[in-house]
Design a protein that fits this description.
This protein is α+β, with helices and mostly antiparallel strands. It is 25% helix and 12% strand. The strands form two sheets. A four-stranded antiparallel sheet has the order 1-2-4-3. A two-stranded antiparallel ribbon has the order 5-6. It is globular, with a radius of gyration of 20 Å. The N terminus is likely disordered.
C-alpha cells in the first residue's frame, strides 16, 4: 500500500506544475482546457472565474458554441469517422452547489475512440472498446420482488435511493436526487 500511495502521489504530482502559474501552459493564449484529469470535459478560461482567465463574459456563449460545433465536426483523418458522438452544455447535465466547478462542455466519444490523461491529444483512435465509460449500463439485482427482464427508464442517480428503499428506509433523505 505504501508503494502504491507513493507511486500515485508521484504520478499525479507531475501534472501540477503544468497548471500552476509559470507552468507549461501559456494561459494568456488559452481559451479552453481540459481540467485536471477530466479529459471529456472542457472549461473555458473565463475572466473572473479562472486565475488567468482571458475569455470575457460577452464572448462566453459564442465561443462555447463554436467549440461545441467543432467537437461535433471532428473526424479521424484516416477513416473520416466522427470522433465525438454528443456534446452537452454543463447546464444540461449538472446542477447543485458545485455547478460552477463543472466543465462548460462535456462530450462523449464515438465507439472506437478513447480519452486519457496519459496521451498528448484530447482523444485517440483505439478501434475497440477502450474501457471508457458508456452512457448505457448494466443493472443486476436479485431477491424477493425482483422481476427478471430489462429495466427501462432507470438512471444511475436512482441506484442509491432504490438501495435505501430495499434496505427498509421508507423515506430517503429529501436532498437525495433520483427518488
Amino acid at each position: 500500500m505504501r508503494h502504491l500511495r507513493r507511486r500515485l502521489i508521484k504520478d499525479v504530482s507531475r501534472h501540477f506544475s503544468t497548471f500552476s502559474p509559470g507552468g507549461t501552459i501559456d494561459w494568456s493564449r488559452t481559451v479552453a482546457f481540459c481540467p485536471w484529469t477530466e479529459q471529456q470535459g472542457l472549461r473555458l478560461n473565463v475572466k473572473g472565474r479562472e486565475p488567468s482567465g482571458i475569455v470575457s463574459a460577452d464572448a462566453y456563449e459564442g465561443l462555447r458554441e463554436e467549440i461545441r460545433l467543432a467537437l461535433l465536426g471532428a473526424t479521424e483523418p484516416q477513416s473520416g469517422q466522427r470522433v465525438v458522438d454528443r456534446v452537452w452544455r454543463r447546464e444540461e447535465i449538472y446542477q447543485g452547489p458545485f455547478f460552477d466547478r463543472m466543465p462548460d462542455l462535456v462530450f462523449a466519444l464515438s465507439p472506437g475512440f478513447a480519452a486519457s490523461q496519459a496521451q498528448q491529444r484530447l482523444w485517440s483512435a483505439t478501434g475497440w472498446a477502450s474501457g471508457d465509460h458508456s452512457l448505457d449500463g448494466i443493472l443486476v439485482a436479485w431477491g424477493p420482488g425482483v422481476v427478471a427482464g430489462p429495466v427501462t427508464g432507470a438512471e444511475l442517480i436512482g441506484v442509491a435511493p432504490t438501495a435505501l428503499y430495499w434496505l427498509g428506509s421508507r423515506c430517503p433523505p429529501r436532498w437525495m436526487e433520483g427518488c
